[in-house]
Amino acid sequence: MKQKVHSGSKPKLKECLEEEAYLELCRTTDLLSRRLGGLLKAEDLSANQYNILRILRGSPDGLPCGEIGNRMITRDPDITRLLDRLEKRELITRCRETKDRRMVMARIAPGGLKLLAELDEPVREAHAGQLAHLGRKRLWALMELLQEARSEG
Which residue among 5, 31, 71, 105 has its CA within the 20 to 30 Å range from the CA of 78? Predict the structure, then answer.
């Protein structure tokens, strides 16, 4: 039997409901991230490094560093440091473009593709273990609400 997760407090009508909703989102994000973080940590990856690998897998021709930063789930001001670590592990490659020497393109390397392929199923299983109990209809509703909340910010 699954244990129900409580935030420790119930929203009070006199308090700011928007703040309470925000805190619930933060608590949920933290809980879900920590559970997935263990899986990534076993592969010596941070969530941001994993995100970069997934972004680059979806763009086999490569992307400029700035575009990778724009596509990140969580903004990281030091994208160069993240790319340095991935390149050192031979999970990505970087090179300067011949037309515009100022532009550095990053591409996923065979090692990065292999690592992602190994992680795909365990990550899917982890997400299913975290959220499948909500059911498809409620997951779609949740995603729509979250997208709408982002569009108003």
Answer: 31
**Phi-psi domain of 121 (left: phi exceeds 0; alpha: psi -120 through 50; beta: other):** alpha
Reported as a single tens digit per residue, the pLDDT across 56-69 is: 999 989 999 889 99
Q: Which CATH number fits domain 17-152: 3.40.50.880, 1.10.10.10, 3.30.1490.20, 3.90.226.10?
A: 1.10.10.10
Instruction: Determine the pLDDT at residue 116.
Output: 97
pLDDT digits (tens, 9 = 90+) for 137-148: 999 999 999 999
Length of the chain: 153
Q: What token pair was written down for 59?
A: 């763009």
What type of residue is 58?
A: G
Q: Is 93 helix (H, G, I), strand (E, B) or coil?
A: strand
Q: d(Cα 111, Cα 71) in Å, to the nearest integer?
A: 22
Name 105's bridge partners. 64, 95
| Residues in the chain where the model's pLDDT stays below 50 | 1-3
